[in-house]
Amino acid sequence: MNNLKLIAPTLQSILLKYTSRFKVIRHLSSIKNPPDVKYIPELKIPQGVLGQPTCHTHPHLISTGYLTCGITQMEYKERRETLVSKLVEAENVHKTHVIVIPGSRKQYMSDKIPYVFRQNSDFFYLTGCLEPSAILVMIKTEDRDSFKTILFVHDKDSHAELWEGPRTGCSAATALFSVDESQPVENFGNFLNRTISSLKSTILWYHNESPANPDIHDTVRASLRHHAALEDPQRVLHLMRVIKSPAEVELMKETCYIGSQSVNMAMACTKPGISEHAISSVFEYTCRMSGAEHGAFPPVVAGGSRATHIHYVSNNQLLDNGDMLLIDAGCQRWLYNSDISRTWPVSGKFSPHHKILYELVLAVQKRLIDLLGQQRPPLDHLFDHMCRLLGMYLQQEGILPKNIDTNELIGRAYRLCPHHVSHYLGLDVHDSPLVRRRIPVATNMIVTVEPGIYIRADDTTVPPEFRGVGIRIEDDVLITDGHPLILTDTCVKEVQDIEAIVGRQNI
Ligand SMILES: [Mn+2]
After folding, report:
1. What's residue 209's pLDDT?
2. Does the pLDDT of residue 251 top 90, yes or no?
3. Is there a domain that residue 468 lies in?
C-alpha cells in the first residue's frame, strides 16, 4: 500500500490547501490485525511459489498467517461450516448432501487472448482460491457430524506452467485451502457420478441457472441421472455474504478509501476541453497506483446531457465549460468493490440552476442515510422515501408544479430517477443478488445510497433552465448499531469543497 504515497502527497496538498473538511488524509496500510481473528496454529500456509500470492511470496500484499489479504484459512473454513449446516437444516429430509460450487473459467476476448481473470465470488467467499475452473465439493452424510471437503484444482504440469505460470497443485492445495482432500479437475466428473450413484437419498446443491462455469455445467447436469434432487445453494449463501465479517468490513473500508481518493483526483484534474476519457484514465490510474487491482466496472464519465443516460460508458466526448460532469466509478481490491458517484461543474463553479439541483439531490441523499440509521428500512422502502423526498423538494423549488397530488408527484419524481436508490455491496458490485431488497437492513450490511435526477434536454415538463443535466450522488454505507458509517466519506461532496478542488491539478 506504500504506492498510495506516490499519489497522496499531491492530492493531500490540494485538499488541505483548498478545503476545510480534510485536515487529515490517512495513508493506507496493509491490514495487519483485523479484529476477532482466531489464530489456529495447526493451519499453516505452505512455503514455496504457488498458484496465487501467499504471505511467504507476497508479504507486501498478505500479512503472515493470512490466506488472502486480511482473511485467515480459519475464516474460510468457518464459512463452509456455516453454509453446510444451514443447507442441511433447510432440507433435512435428505440423508446425503452434496454441494458443488465452481470457480469461474477463463474468458477470452479473441483466440487465446484472455481477459483479466475474475474469480466467481461465491467460490472465492468459501475458499479464498484464485485458480480458474477449480471446483469446491462438500459432502455431508447422515452417519457423520462433520462433512468432507474436496477441492478440484489443476495439478502441477511443467508444460502448462511454462506458459501460464506456477500452479498450486493438488498436494499444496490441501494445506493452503485447509480442505480434506485435493484432486485434479479431470477427476471431477467421475467423482461426482460415483458419489451420487453410491449414496442414498441424495440432494445436490448446485446453482443451475446462469452457471458460473459452463465447462463443468454439463458434467453436473449429467450426474442428475442418478435420481438426485437438485436445489440451489445460492439463496442461503447470499444471506451469509450480505452480512460482512469484521475482516470484510476492513477490506471494504480500504477499497472505498481508494475509490474516494481516486474520484477526488478525477475532480482535481477536471477542466474545460479535457476529454471524458482522460478523466476516466485519471480515476483508473489513481486506483491502481493505490493498491486496487482494477476498476469495479466500466466507469461512467458523462458530461452534460450524456449523464441522463444512466449507463453511458462511451466516455469519448470533450467537456464543455458550462457542463456538469457525472462520474459513477469504483475499484476492486482483493475482490471487494467500491461504487461511488459524484457530479461536479467542469468549470469549477456551479451555475445557479445546477447548484439548486445539486443541493436538492444532496439533501435527499443525506436524509436517506439518516433514515437508514433511524428506521433500518428495507432498501425498497428507501426507494419510496427517495421518490417522495425528491418530489417534495422539486415542488418546493418550483421545478415540478404545485397543483398535483401526492401520487402524481411521486410518479413524476420516479420518472426523473428511474433507477433504484440502493443495492448491497461487497464481493460483487450488485452484491448478494438473491437477497431481496424487501428485508430490513441489518448491522454489518454494506449498501449504496445513490439518489439521482436526470432531466433530458427535450423534457418540456420542467423549466428550460433545468434541462439537459444528470446528477447522482452515491456513497457506500456500513449499517451499524448506531448511525451508519459512510465508508466513502473522504470523497468530496459539499458544494464549497467541490468548487475548491475542481481544476487544481494539472495533467
Ligand atoms: Mn451503485
Report:
1. 86
2. yes
3. yes
Residue 240 CA to ligand 1 center (angstroms) comes to 21
Is 340 domain-assigned? yes
Q: 366: CA distance to ligand 1 center in Å?
A: 16
- Cα(487) to ligand 1 centroid in Å equals 14
Q: How far is the CA of 340 from the centre of ligand 1 (A)?
A: 7
**In this structure, how many other beta carbons lie within 10 angstroms of the beta carbon of residue 144?**
9
Residue bearing cell 462520474: 327
Where residue 399 falls (left for φ over 0; alpha for ψ -120 to 50; beta otherwise) is alpha
Query: In this structure, are strands 202-205 and 96-102 parallel, antiparallel, or unpaired?
Result: parallel
Is the whole-model pTM more than 0.85?
yes
**Residue numbers of the domain that contains 119:** 73-240
Residue 159: CATH number of its domain: 3.40.350.10
Distance 341 CA to ligand 1 centre (A): 8
Q: Give the distance (Å) from ligand 1 centre to CA of residue 249.
A: 18
pLDDT at 95: 86
**Could you tell me if residue 362 is inside a domain?**
yes
Q: What is the pLDDT of residues 94-123, one digit of tens each?
A: 889 999 999 999 999 999 899 999 999 999
Q: Tell me which of 216 and 19 has the higher pLDDT.
A: 216
CATH of the domain at 282: 3.90.230.10
Distances (CA, A) of 248 to 29, 44, 319, 359: 15, 21, 38, 33
Asked which of 208, 240, 272 is the last residue of a domain, the reply is 240
Query: Are residues 234 and 290 both part of a single domain?
Result: no
pLDDT for residue 283: 96
